[in-house]
User: Fold this.
Amino acid sequence: MRVIFFGSPAFALSSLEAVAREHQVLAVVSQPDRPAGRGKKLQPPPVKELALRLGLPVEQPLKVRDGVLAKTLLALQPDVFVVVAYGRILPPDLLAVPRLGAWNMHASLLPKYRGAAPIQWAVIRGESKTGVCVMRMEQGLDTGPVAASVEEPIRDDDTAGTLGERLASLGSKLLVATLPCIADGTVALQAQDEAGATLAPLMKKEDGYLDLGAPASAVSAQARGVDPWPGATVFLEGEPMKVFGARVIEGQGTPGEVQGLVPQGLAVACGGGAVTFAELQMPGRKRMPAAAVLAGHPIPVGTRLTQVPGR
Assistant:
C-alpha cells in the first residue's frame, strides 16, 4: 500500500522499519526538532533520523490544523495513514485524506489508558497486563474501533522503558499483520466499550516525586512507571535524589525513614512495608549503585526522605 507514516519518538522506530519493508512509504510526518541537552541544541526526533537514513521524505509541520499539511499529503494520494506515537491529534481534514483511513498503533488494551502515556500509567497503577492495539482513528482521543490487539504481561521488575521496548516490537508486528486486512477489506472492527475507558495523560515532572506514604507496592510501581522519564525522585535534606530499581521488601517504620543498606540497595520505609532502591543519583552526579553512593555520601539510618522539599 501507499503509506504515510506519522511518528516521533524511539517507540515508533520498529514500526516505521517494519512498514517500510512491506509497503511504499510516501512520506514521514514527525514533530519539529526541539532544543535538548545542556547546550539546548536543536535535536531531531528519532523517527526523523531513521526516515532520513531510509531515504524517505520528511514533513515536520509546526501546525496540523491550518490545512497546509492536509493539502500536501492529499497530493501524494495515500492509501492509509499509519500513526505511532506522533504526539498530536489529527484534525478532520487530515483524517479524510487517505483512501482507506488513518490507523493508529496504541500501546494499551483500549479502551483502557487512552492518551499520551499509556505505558507509564499502566505500570504506575499496578496493572498485571497491558498490550497493543491497532485502531481506526476518528476525531476523539483514541476512541476509534479496534482492528486487532495483543496482550503482554507486566513483570514485577518492569519499568516503563523495558515494557515499552517489548510493546514497540509487538506493535510493529501487529501493524504489518493487520495492514493487508485493511487493504483487502477483511479487517474486523470492534467498537470500544466506553464504560471501561480510562485516561493516561501526558507525564509531568511532578509525577516522579515518590509518595512514600503509600504502600510499598504502590511506591515501587510509581518508581518503575516513571523510569526513564521523568525519573523517580525523593528529597534528602531538601535536595532531589533520583532513585532506581525499586523492589518491595518486608519492613516497617515512619514513611520515608531510611532503614539502612541491604543487599538489594537502600531500604526505605513506606506507608506499608518498605522498598529498596538499587541505584541512586545525587544532584550533579552520575547514577551509581546505592552502596557506592553511600560510601562517599552516608545517609544515616533514621534519616527521613520526603516527597517534596521540606516535608
Remarks:
- The helical segments are 13-22, 46-53, 68-74, 92-95, 118-124, 160-184, 216-225, 290-296.
- Residues 160-184 form the longest helix (25 residues).
